[in-house]
TrEMBL record:
Annotated compartments: Cytoplasm
Keyword Thylakoid listed: no
Protein name: Ribosome-recycling factor
Function per UniProt: Responsible for the release of ribosomes from messenger RNA at the termination of protein biosynthesis. May increase the efficiency of translation by recycling ribosomes from one round of translation to another.
Primary localization class, coarse: cytoplasm
Organism encoding this protein: Advenella alkanexedens
Keywords: Cytoplasm, Protein biosynthesis
């Protein structure tokens, strides 16, 4: 593996982290119900944690209400508990086997809670980027150890990876601040 291949691989993986962040931020809605809102909520299903969408049908009833229809009768309770305990601040209502999930009105407090969720998503993305930087730098160290590249080449490669990391972290900060502004806009 060459230095340019390591940099290209790191850049590709960092770009994927940014796309994941954009996808996660798009699921955080300010006023309307969205089935994607529950995508990252995990529920216990026969001893393992799975996304809600794998054990139930999630649909939008109206602009402010979601319905969650479990595929198995015994999953209504665990689904209700998982949604209630998620960081989304939702309070599902059981109606037989069907769960109705009303979207809370966006009070100032709710907006602040959503900005905390956005900041956590941003921090998770930064951690992923930093882990990719570490992996690339470890690859350079192995290449020096195996005498595939010189120490000068390693230093230049690490500098390039650091610049790339800084660029992606800056992009994450921009995305997070834009989403926070969108949420706090009255």
């Amino acid at each position: 593996m060459s230095i340019s291949e390591v940099k290209k691989s790191a850049e590709t993986r960092m770009s994927k982290s940014i796309e994941t962040l954009k996808n996660n931020l798009s699921k955080i809605r300010t006023g309307r119900a969205s089935a994607a809102l529950l995508d990252h909520v995990q529920v216990e299903y026969y001893g393992s944690m799975v996304p809600v969408s794998q054990v139930a049908a999630v649909n939008v009833i109206d602009a402010r209400t979601l319905s969650v229809q479990p595929w198995e009768k015994n999953m209504a309770g665990p689904l209700e508990k998982a949604i209630r305990e998620s960081d989304l601040g939702l309070n599902p209502v059981a109606m037989g086997e069907l769960l109705r999930v009303p979207m809370p009105a966006l009070t100032e407090e709710r907006r602040r809670d959503l900005t905390k969720v956005v900041k956590n998503e941003g921090e998770d993305a930064k951690i992923a980027i930093r882990n990719l930087r570490r992996d690339a730098n470890d690859t350079f160290k192995k290449m020096v150890k195996e005498k595939e590249i010189s120490e000068d080449d390693e230093r230049r490669g690490q500098d390039d990876i650091q610049k790339m990391t800084d660029k992606f972290v800056s992009e994450i900060d921009t995305l997070v601040s834009q989403k926070e502004a969108e949420i706090m806009k009255v």
